[in-house]
Design brief:
single chain; 494 residues; alpha/beta; seven-stranded mixed β-sheet; five-stranded parallel β-sheet; 10 helices; disordered N terminus
Length: 494
Amino acid sequence: MNALRGSFPCFPSSTVASESNHVIGQRVQVKVLVVGAGPIGLFAMQQLEGLQFYHNERLCTDSNKNSVLDRKVLVHDMSPQGHNANRVKMLSGQKFASLYDKENNRYEPCLEWHFNSEQKVDWMMCSDEPVGGSWNTYLPSQQTLSDYREMGLPDYPIEQCDVRKIPLPPPPDPCQRVVTDGESLLKYYQDYGKKILTESRAVRGRVVSATQAGSVWQSGLFWEVVVRGSAGQETLIQCDYLLLAIGKKKPNWLNISGEQDNPHVSHWTHDACRAMDKLAPGSKVLVVGNSFSACDTIYEAWQKGMKVIHLLPAKIKEEAVSVKNQPGKRGRHAVIQHLNYKRSWRHFSVAEAMACPEKYQGGYEQGLNCRLVGIENQRLCHIVQELAGTEAQHFQLEFDHIALLTGVKVDYSFFPDTLKSFLTQSNGYLDLCPETMESNACQNLFCIGFSAGESFLNHSLGHAVAAVETIRKREQDKKAQMMKRDEVVPMEWD
């Protein structure tokens, strides 16, 4: 994969930009700046090049197999009528359009795409990650949760690409889902990026500041963004629209002593796995969290012959026991659902360990209702256990690695403090218009692709369509107003 990353022309060693983008030294002017080189950012760039989607109404209303009532419209298409049969506004934005055929248990596309270069909007991209975004950090063998077809981009059919297809569960059990792995997906997204990105459109570096400047409807540009490269060089990019496609990249820190700048602490599955590669079998690993990231880390630790201590809320174990004892019961927790849907052996085995730790006592032990409250000398963990009706118990245990997998969030630290407080609601969610993905607090700021987890990929595709179509329409309106203003009306003479 390193060879692939090094082959991309889209990340120059120094800041480069074309004459069409009005470069003045280290200053660049452009209509839209896309921040992020992940799949959703790439998809938005392709739309800015002229890719557009149109609703195929025939798929929704005319079928020889099923009536309209037998189909569920899962998603919102971007047609002018706003066709959305389930009338659901999603906090994370509208889903990307497709149809689910209940009789045949399959998805059918509801939108058709067309490429129209006349709809192009001037854009550039900056990112501190290689093309593919966070997929560069996935382990090559790390498998997706979703069907591989749900990971594809609409105008680059993944079924026709050289993507590894892994049936789950494996034969001879009946296949329930076909997934792929991190290495295949990274190459797929990189190949897509090759179609779009050139040196003249990319600035490699990290956004260190983004401030408002000027007026949207006047000649002054609206955003001034400073991008700092790895060598410390800075580029000032002035743009009308700032389109953030940077996902969730900031771990939910526990904010305990000894957590930061600790080589024995990780906050991501891939970091935990690479750290465990350096440990001997029999090493002890502490895992905090109960998400799929924690699940994958626990399973990988078992594969390496390590002992896992898992800090787990008692209510999660109770749900696991309940689902285990009632075949067919689904459960609310995503990992626990795999107890009755054995699509993935790794997820089933960890879910079973959560319900029946005694079956895995050689490699798994639980700390119910335990909290990690501090780390001393990098590996000595201070743990408090609180159970109803009992006095809190304090433990000190030493571990070879500590995986704190407690979720991630967006990181907009480059905004001034006066703006950051207005970007989110009281519940912590971004305050966005779900129809446009534009910030309700800050005009011409669009946030897309921040939904975590592969099952939200369709949401994120919808983010990109909503944002780009809003920008395109706004530019068309401005152009029409300018033409009307400059229109010469002939004088009438008596």
